[in-house]
């Protein structure tokens, strides 16, 4: 067979192929170079910094500085008026144990998730730092830290918390010295006795008693994995109140143990298959004044200073809470819900000017106390209070709420016949036909807002809620505009405060000032300095406020009105399981939530009526705001500096609206709810069961 002679075209193809291969090879070499630089250069720099630090801080890098703060130097927390809220116990809630008194599973789980090279490094893990650095670089953000257990222990024992390179170098220097001075078991033992596990439990023994009512030596593999995952973010993974997040974190620890060779694949499979937490909560802590706000402040302090310093560092913490507002909040709740079997209520009030939390109170009738912060930690479906975010997103797109009309009528949405439909109705099945978005807001008409949410886009509604201040995760499903997502009262107060401030978001602020144990004010942590930035135009906030102000005068919020400029929105979920009122004046924003802490239990018969947003929540809001602002002169909402910019608003036809409705009297505002069928109705994604009304 004769071989074909290569022509010029073949040579060009071959040349192009070789060129591509050379370029790919160069890219791979560059990637390896960066990795090598990260793996070698960073540790080398740290080693050099360590030697430099040892020379420069020879006197300060001493293990004597690691001595725990003297017992009895408690930290104290004060209200805005200087009155004492309470002290943070020094040793009271911590029960030190020896390492042999800790379950082997707990030891292995801790090392696997916190510092898997713990037994290989000398206090500072240069390989781990390089790995964390590379993960952060490739992710484009901080996704992994490089601190070892030894460094964390130093951080918890070391008093000074200045956020400087000098402190980081000193921390590394002390960690190396401590690793040489103490055995690995000693360091691990002290770490387990120092770390904060959430729910006021410091140390592994207190945590085991708090969550499982047992000693640390008796922890099983799943229990140990659950507890080992808590120190990274005790509030986020709180198993007493965030079951799914706690399970996910537990499974992450189990995977780390599997990778680390601490458990077999079969044992891992058995542990992961168990979807129960097996909690048996214990009671270890006595009551303190304003426990909900107190625990919120303590979590922030621990994040900034470490658990040991917060317990025993002699801190003086001055907060934003107003004791008078706290008293008025509890009085308003108890005057409204006075029976032992009444549902619980939570109230949070924020100054929209700077984000300062002025009140954070909760009352659970029939119970003397509740360590769970119903204001900051509880997440329940928001009902129609979330319509405000759909309205804001629409106005930001240029929709004029007084000139944009929809049909009020039973709404049927089923883009894919393979999945169940989403059917939306009003609570009393009365409709008004063609109506403006403004009037639909006053009626809290779910059928109109279902259509509006689809036109705006569920993802845009979620994004707007986050921009305004909601920090809970949100699913951008069609029912989001009707309040199917779960949020906290603090989330809602923060978001409504942004509207009250004319579109300027202020991060909720609880701490005004911290005086350290040495008598110096901590000026590095940023306490008392509002974190603010504009998130929407002032005219957008003004337009939404105008609609919500009308709602207070003529709509579902009329029961909360108290004869001064105010704006607000009611909310009730399906089966009356949760009820809300979110409202504001120019100088105070307050959110009220009512429900049963134990779960979504219908409130069909409370004092003879079904609980909804316009009832008890509006009453509590009215009583509190009227008393809180008694000595404050009425203020008008600020006029926007920018004129509204209206654009043609594109409306679509997603389903059909039935015109066989019965009109309600136009002069009587009605409250509404929606009955929604679980439906996979958003481009193949799940449409969460809507719980929204009023």
Folded structure, characterized:
The chain has 694 residues and is α+β, with helices and mostly antiparallel strands. It is built from 20 helices and 20 strands. It has a five-stranded antiparallel beta sheet with strand order 5-4-17-16-15, with helices on both faces. The chain has a four-stranded mixed beta sheet with strand order 2-1-3-13. Helix 9 (243-259) packs antiparallel against helix 10 (265-273), helix 14 packs across helix 17 (458-468) and helix 15 crosses helix 19 (538-554). It is globular.
The overall average pLDDT, rounded, is 82
**Major sheet details:** 5 strands, antiparallel
Tally of DSSP β-strands: 20
Q: Structural class of the secondary elements?
A: alpha+beta
Order of neighbouring strands in the sheet with most strands: 5-4-17-16-15
What is the topology?
Elements: H1 8-56, E1 75-78, E2 84-88, H2 104-114, H3 126-139, H4 149-157, H5 165-181, H6 184-194, H7 204-212, H8 221-228, H9 243-259, H10 265-273, H11 291-305, H12 307-312, E3 316-319, H13 323-336, E4 344-350, E5 357-363, E6 380-381, H14 387-396, E7 405-408, E8 411-413, E9 422-424, E10 433-436, H15 437-443, H16 446-456, H17 458-468, E11 486-487, H18 489-500, E12 504-506, E13 511-515, E14 532-534, H19 538-554, E15 567-572, E16 578-585, E17 588-595, H20 616-628, E18 656-657, E19 679-682, E20 685-687
Parallel strand pairs: 1-3
Antiparallel strand pairs: 1-2, 3-13, 4-5, 4-17, 6-11, 7-10, 8-9, 8-18, 12-14, 15-16, 16-17, 19-20
């Amino acid at each position: 067979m004769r071989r074909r002679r290569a022509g010029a075209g073949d040579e060009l193809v071959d040349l192009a192929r070789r060129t591509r291969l050379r370029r790919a090879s160069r890219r791979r070499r560059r990637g390896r170079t960066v990795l090598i630089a990260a793996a070698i250069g960073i540790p080398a720099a740290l080693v050099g910094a360590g030697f430099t630090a040892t020379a420069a801080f020879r006197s300060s890098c001493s293990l004597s500085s690691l001595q725990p703060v003297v017992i009895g130097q408690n930290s104290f927390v004060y209200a805005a008026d200087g009155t004492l809220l309470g002290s943070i116990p020094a040793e009271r809630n911590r029960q030190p144990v020896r390492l042999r008194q800790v379950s082997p599973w707990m030891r292995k789980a801790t090392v696997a998730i916190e510092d898997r090279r713990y037994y290989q490094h000398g206090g500072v893990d240069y390989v781990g730092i390089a790995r964390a650095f590379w993960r952060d670089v490739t992710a484009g953000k901080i996704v992994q830290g490089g601190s070892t257990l030894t460094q964390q222990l130093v951080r918890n024992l070391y008093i000074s918390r200045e956020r400087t390179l000098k402190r980081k170098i000193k921390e590394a220097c002390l960690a190396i010295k401590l690793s040489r001075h103490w055995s690995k078991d000693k360091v691990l033992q002290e770490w387990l006795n120092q770390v904060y596990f959430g729910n006021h439990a410091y140390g592994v023994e207190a945590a085991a008693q708090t969550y499982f009512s047992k000693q640390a030596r008796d922890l099983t593999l799943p229990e140990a994995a659950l507890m080992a995952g808590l120190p990274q973010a005790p509030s986020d993974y709180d198993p007493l109140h965030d079951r799914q997040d706690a399970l996910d974190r537990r499974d992450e620890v189990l995977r780390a143990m599997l990778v680390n060779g601490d458990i077999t694949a079969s044992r891992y499979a058995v542990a992961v298959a168990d979807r129960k937490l097996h909690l048996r909560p214990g009671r270890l802590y006595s009551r303190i004044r304003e426990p909900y706000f107190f625990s919120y402040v303590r979590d922030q302090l621990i994040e900034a200073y470490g658990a040991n310093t917060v317990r025993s560092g002699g801190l003086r913490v001055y907060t934003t809470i107003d004791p008078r507002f706290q008293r008025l909040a509890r009085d308003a709740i108890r005057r409204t819900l006075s029976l032992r079997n009444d549902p619980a209520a939570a109230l949070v009030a924020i100054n929209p000017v700077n984000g300062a939390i002025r009140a954070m109170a909760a009352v659970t009738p029939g119970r003397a106390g509740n360590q769970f912060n119903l204001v900051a930690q509880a997440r329940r479906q928001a009902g129609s209070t979330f319509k405000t975010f759909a309205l804001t997103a629409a106005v930001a797109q240029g929709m004029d709420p007084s000139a944009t009309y929809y049909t009020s009528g039973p709404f049927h949405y089923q883009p894919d016949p393979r999945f169940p439909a989403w059917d939306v109705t009003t609570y009393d099945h009365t409709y008004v036909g063609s109506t403006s978005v403004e009037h639909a807001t006053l009626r809290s008409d779910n059928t109109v807002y279902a259509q509006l949410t689809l036109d705006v886009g569920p993802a845009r509604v979620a994004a707007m809620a986050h921009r305004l201040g909601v920090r809970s995760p949100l699913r951008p499903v069609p029912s989001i505009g009707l309040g199917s997502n779960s949020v906290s009262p603090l989330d809602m107060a923060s978001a409504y405060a942004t509207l009250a401030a004319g579109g300027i978001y202020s991060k909720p602020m609880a701490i005004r000032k911290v005086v350290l144990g040495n008598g110096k004010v901590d000026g590095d942590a940023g306490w008392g300095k509002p974190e603010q930035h504009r998130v929407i135009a002032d005219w957008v906030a003004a337009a939404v406020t105008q609609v919500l102000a009308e709602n207070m005068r003529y709509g579902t919020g009329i029961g909360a009105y108290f004869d001064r400029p105010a704006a607000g929105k009611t909310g009730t979920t399906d089966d009356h399981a949760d009820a809300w009122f979110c409202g504001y004046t120019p100088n105070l924003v307050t959110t009220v939530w009512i429900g049963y802490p134990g779960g979504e239990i219908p409130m069909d018969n409370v004092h003879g009526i079904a609980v909804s947003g316009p009832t008890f929540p509006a009453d509590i809001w009215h009583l509190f705001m009227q008393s809180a602002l008694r000595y404050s002169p009425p203020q008008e909402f600020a006029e926007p500096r920018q004129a509204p910019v209206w654009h043609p608003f594109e409306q679509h036809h997603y389903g059909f609206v039935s015109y066989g409705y019965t009109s309600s009297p136009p002069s009587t505002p009605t409250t509404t709810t929606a009955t929604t069928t679980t439906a996979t109705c958003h481009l193949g994604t799940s449409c969460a069961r809507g719980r929204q009304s009023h």
